[in-house]
Design a protein that fits this description.
The complex is a heterodimer. Chain A is of the alpha+beta class. Chain A contains 18 helices and 15 strands. Chain B is about 40% helix and about 15% strand. The chains are: A alpha+beta, B alpha/beta.
């Protein structure tokens, strides 16, 4: 990386570099960054997040952060620049940027020129105009909302016109026990011609709420981002705080954290598998998977006192220890589980009506993975393994390496198989963790110091990125970008050409998080 | 892949019988007793069954996971006469989770209006009851009470399946007392 930056500096003489952590390098540019971003794109860097922060280094202005990742390097590269009165959109270089730019526009009022979409993102019609919650000038409090929304203020969906094309609006309140989201289909006969999704119905103001909170209070917020990713998110948050404050986590706690994270992955993915089978109208087939999930959730309670691992992590370690007897029993259970689980997966796949519905349905093309920054099982099912545990190993994943299996079809069946495989692999990882767990402390004392840091983890849905700024021992900015934020938009191209009744199946096969996206 | 599946292509009916259901023994005494008690009340007050429509207004999804669990083989609350329905038009109870995000305010009101009277509202989870961590955020109303007349609160982060059943039982008591 050093060599690369040296080369880059020859072309862009005015940029400064800051190495914040060994794996986190900042390029600071005062000029317009479009050319710099273009140069990075040509060197195969990929935009993994983009956000803003107000008054970041007490410069009394808004800073923009462009976060890049490259297959060749272990480090992540962040381009930081001052937001100007008008900024050039990088949408033409990285298509996902239009989402980030809309997010920044809502949060901070920063305008991007020559972008493709100027609609509001997380602030729906009910919010007043010129309201930008993430500016420091706004103190978190209740705001006057619009009482009536006129027709001209309503959200405009992309409309496909033509003979025989009609629209189906779905949501925000859906038929099942599920979170709210709006899906607008343009359909010919039964075939989907276009889909546009609109989210952020559950926007709770997570990022603003954490500002001014102590790091310990912030941990509670990180746990509540998404119910079935609570370990992944709180782990990412703890990692960031521990990097800032240089806290060493005892080995036993690191092992337990990995154990929790992998158990969470198992129960979360089991829910996906059973959901997919329910959606092809095969409830009897889904029952074993629901039973497995309940069993795993009971194990969660046995080892952490919470079915969702709430309150099980803390800064510097974990909250409570797990006794060796329980660990041994868990290991035995997982041995039995893996066997029975494999039998049940094979039974499902032996039914021809399952493959009839699963195969060639909802294909996510491999070419889209990079540009859309798709990650997790979704990417692995389409032929690209960008598992954070392999790419940027944290905790124990350097020693206990996750499976690198990929499938190339990218259809519902591939996602089903990859998820089933990931579950078995997680069970293996847990058994290895239990075999190698040392005795000792489960947490260490710490002192909060000021600073900022990134942290990336692999949740059950993919790459979760957290960025924390601590100022005066309080959280100054907490930016979360879960895998779902990017992965949601894979569904739009994936459903085209499929029939409407297959949409729930394709949706479930990705099983993305509404709350992780809406924040 | 194709080969793996079609080589062993079997008749689905025989698969159904092959599954090892006998190894699944689950009896949670407390849960069973609660369920049977609830069933009696439901039989009396609602004439055998009640229908619930869920509206998620910004929960962290863990209450929904527990609600889905209630319908799975472990708990299977349909046998106690409790159904989750797709439309508010069919609902006796509007069950609300989350602190009512402003973006969901209109949808929540419309869902409530769409349900036929008499109807009851349950607020499920700390956020919905107004004691969660999001209550002071700019983006939420704060609690379901501020928007709809709440008949029963089931606190918890999230409430366990037993808690949810206990809450339902409490609602039945309340309705009975009113009458």
């Amino acid at each position: 990386m050093e060599k690369f930056i040296h080369e880059l500096k020859k072309e862009f003489t005015k940029i400064k570099t800051i190495v914040n952590n060994p794996d986190e390098i900042y390029l600071i540019s005062e000029e317009n960054v479009f050319k710099l971003v273009e140069a990075l794109k040509n060197k195969k860097f990929n935009l993994i997040s983009m956000f803003a922060a107000d008054n970041f280094d007490n410069s009394r202005g808004i800073d923009l952060f462009y976060v890049f990742d490259n297959e060749e390097y272990k480090e992540i590269l962040i381009v930081k620049t001052h937001a100007k009165t008008s900024n050039i959109s990088i949408f033409s270089l990285f298509p996902t940027a239009y989402l980030y730019e809309r997010e920044i526009k809502d949060g901070f009022g920063v305008i991007f020129d020559s972008t493709c979409d100027t609609r509001r993102l997380f602030l729906h019609e009910i919010y007043p105009e010129k309201f930008h919650p993430l500016l420091k000038s706004f103190k978190n409090s209740k705001i006057p909302v619009k009482k009536k929304i006129s027709e001209s203020e309503e959200y405009v969906f992309r409309e496909v016109k033509g003979e025989g094309i009609y629209q189906i609006p779905v949501g925000p309140v859906h038929a099942g026990i599920i979170a709210p989201g709006h899906f607008r289909f343009s359909v010919i006969g039964e075939t989907i011609f276009n889909l546009e999704i609109r989210h952020f119905w559950k926007h709770r103001g997570v990022e603003k709420l954490s500002e001014g909170k102590t790091p310990e209070e912030g941990l509670l917020i990180s746990e509540s981002i998404c119910g079935d990713e609570s370990v992944a998110n709180s782990l990412a948050y703890c990692n960031a705080i521990e990097k800032i404050c240089k806290i060493r986590v005892p080995q036993r706690a690191v092992h337990l954290r990995v154990l929790f994270a992998e158990m969470e992955r198992i129960y979360s993915l089991l829910g996906d598998l059973s959901g997919m089978i329910v959606d092809i109208a095969y409830p009897a087939g889904s029952s074993p998977f629901f039973i497995f999930r309940e069993e795993i959730m009971r194990w969660n309670e046995a080892i952490s006192k919470s079915r969702f691992y709430k309150g099980s992590l803390k800064i510097g370690g974990v909250s409570s220890d797990v006794s060796p007897i329980v660990l041994k029993e868990l290991s035995d259970y997982l041995h039995k589980f893996t066997k029975e689980f494999t039998t049940n997966v094979n039974t499902i796949l032996n039914s021809y009506f399952v493959s009839d519905r699963f195969e060639t349905t909802g294909i996510v093309k491999k070419e889209l993975i990079g540009p859309m920054n798709l990650s997790g099982p979704l990417a692995r099912a389409s032929g690209i393994n960008n598992d954070v545990r392999v790419k940027h190993p944290y905790a124990l994943y350097e020693k206990i390496v996750p499976s690198d299996r990929v499938m190339d079809k990218g259809d519902v069946l591939a996602r089903f198989l990859i998820k089933a495989d990931t579950i078995k692999d997680s069970a293996r990882i847990i058994k290895e963790v239990i075999n190698s767990i040392p005795s000792g402390n489960i947490s260490s004392d710490y002192k909060i110091t000021d600073g900022y840091s990134f942290s990336i983890v692999e949740s059950s849905r993919g790459q979760n990125l957290h960025f924390v700024v601590i100022k005066n021992k309080k959280i100054d900015r907490y930016k979360i970008r879960t895998a779902s934020f990017c992965n949601w938009y894979a569904i739009e191209p994936a459903v085209i050409g499929n029939i409407v009744p297959d949409f729930p199946l394709i949706n479930k096969s990705m099983n993305l998080s509404y709350e992780g996206n809406d924040l | 892949m194709r080969e793996m599946i079609y080589n062993k292509m079997a008749i689905p009916i025989s698969n159904l019988f092959k599954r090892k259901t006998e190894s699944f023994k689950f009896k949670d005494k407390e849960f069973e007793e609660l369920g049977l008690k609830l069933k009696k009340e439901v039989d009396k007050i609602f004439g055998k069954s009640i229908s619930i429509r869920l509206v998620d207004t910004g929960s962290d999804n863990s209450p929904e996971i527990e609600l889905v669990n209630l319908t799975t083989p472990y708990y299977d609350i349909e046998r106690f006469g409790i159904n989750f329905v797709a439309s508010p038009r069919h609902a006796d109870i509007i069950l609300v989770t989350g602190p009512v995000a402003l973006n969901m305010l209109e949808a929540l009101k419309k869902t409530y209006e769409a349900a036929p009277s008499p109807k009851f509202v349950i607020a499920l989870g700390d956020d919905a009851c107004g004691t969660g961590i999001f209550k002071d955020s700019y983006a939420v109303v704060g609690s379901v009470e501020k928007v709809l007349p709440v008949d029963m609160k089931i606190p918890g982060n999230p409430p366990t399946p037993e808690d949810i059943l206990k809450g339902m039982l409490g609602l039945m008591q309340k309705i009975k007392n009113k009458e």
